[in-house]
Write a structure and sequence with these properties.
Bound molecules: zinc ion
Largest sheet: 7 strands, mixed
Low-confidence stretches: none
Number of strands: 18
Structural class: alpha/beta
Shape: globular
Helix content: 25-40%
Number of helices: 10
Length: 333
């Protein structure tokens, strides 16, 4: 089978490797689509997260069950998505059941073979089945959607559903804006983004107001989300927030930011981190896609063959950003 491998910063290539042999307690999944994630871009640019060079990449996928233990309840042909998280299982957070807060949380495609390949062997309890007839390309968005579901649920619990400003219209920021508007009934959703193409996408996501100039937005937001992960954006969020407001971070910083703490203190604001998602968030994301009530196709800007993986990474990390979510197609192997 073909597998997309990471050889070092800027180096991604395709290899022919044997189909994995599932252990007796594992399921074998034939991959349909794999999505290139922001964290894959951290790997591509910096080599972050990856345990060893030559690993098969990818943690966002949809696929069809080939085989599974009879006790799993899965049948061959079932359309599935999977929980790609690899928690340690022994830290305080894992023992408490909060595996998304694991002190050494890894993902398949980083610490074990990933899903950018013809097949994946995985524990069946990590799989979520989607309704027959669900578009497998949209199903591959379940994992990034779970990140957005997790963040949105926490934000609404903490800050209510009055108004939210999302800073950064990458896939996670846009999915959050979409969910706030279409699923969680937030009254006013704003998006700040400097790239005109991405700002246009915020309109498709349903944002009430969109701007490349944070000062031009109407009124002050009491709840803001940094979905970028760079210092200037975090400080813009802290500067623009209403007194007493909250800034949530749904991003990973490649460089540790210098934060405008004095403004945070003088406005008595709350700064909150969001990390990944729980299995329940993934099930909710799969249910939203499987319900057929929502259309997430606007997020997918390209579907490429596995052979074009390197080009996909270059497009997503280049200066001219004309892509948001690129899916790699593994069907037809
Ligand atoms: Zn992801
Ligand atoms: Zn742990």
């Amino acid at each position: 089978m073909r597998a997309v491998k990471f050889y070092g910063p800027g180096k991604v290539g395709l290899e022919d490797i044997p189909v994995p042999v599932p252990r007796s307690a594992e399921a074998l999944v034939k991959i349909k689509y794999g999505g290139i994630c922001g964290s894959d871009l951290h790997i591509f640019r910096q080599g972050m997260f990856v345990a060893k060079l030559g690993e098969t990449m990818g943690h966002e996928f949809s696929g069809a069950v080939v085989s599974a233990p009879p006790s799993s309840g899965l049948s061959p042909g079932d359309l599935v998505v999977g929980d790609p998280r690899v928690p340690c299982g022994t830290c305080a957070a894992c023992i408490a059941g909060d595996t998304h807060r694991c002190s050494s949380l890894g993902f398949i495609g980083e610490v074990s073979p990933g899903a950018f390949a013809g097949y994946l062997a995985i524990a069946p309890e990590k799989l979520v089945t989607l309704k027959g007839g669900t578009d497998p390309a949209q199903a591959a968005l379940a994992e990034p959607l779970a990140v957005a579901v997790h963040a949105c649920r926490r934000i609404i619990t903490a800050a209510g559903s009055g108004n939210v400003l999302v800073l950064g219209a990458g896939p996670i920021g846009l999915l959050m804006a979409y969910l706030f508007k279409n699923v969680y009934a937030v009254k006013r959703v704003g998006v700040f983004e400097i790239d005109p193409f991405r700002l246009g996408k915020a309109k498709e996501a349903g944002a009430d107001e969109r701007s490349a100039d944070i000062e031009s937005l109407s009124g002050q937001y009491s709840c803001l989300v940094d979905a970028v992960g760079v210092e200037t954006v975090l400080n813009k969020a802290i500067g623009a927030a209403a007194p007493g407001g909250c800034v949530f971070i749904s991003a990973i910083y490649e460089r540790t930011p210098q934060t405008d703490i004095n403004t945070l203190v003088s406005k008595e604001m709350t700064l909150v981190g969001n990390n990944a998602y729980s299995f329940d968030d993934l099930k909710e994301a799969a249910a939203l896609i499987g319900s057929g009530k929502y259309d997430f196709r606007w997020l997918v800007t390209s579907i490429m063959s596995a052979e074009e993986a390197a080009r996909g990474f270059e497009l997503l990390t280049g200066k001219e950003k004309r892509d948001l979510k690129i899916l790699l197609r593994f069907e037809g192997e």
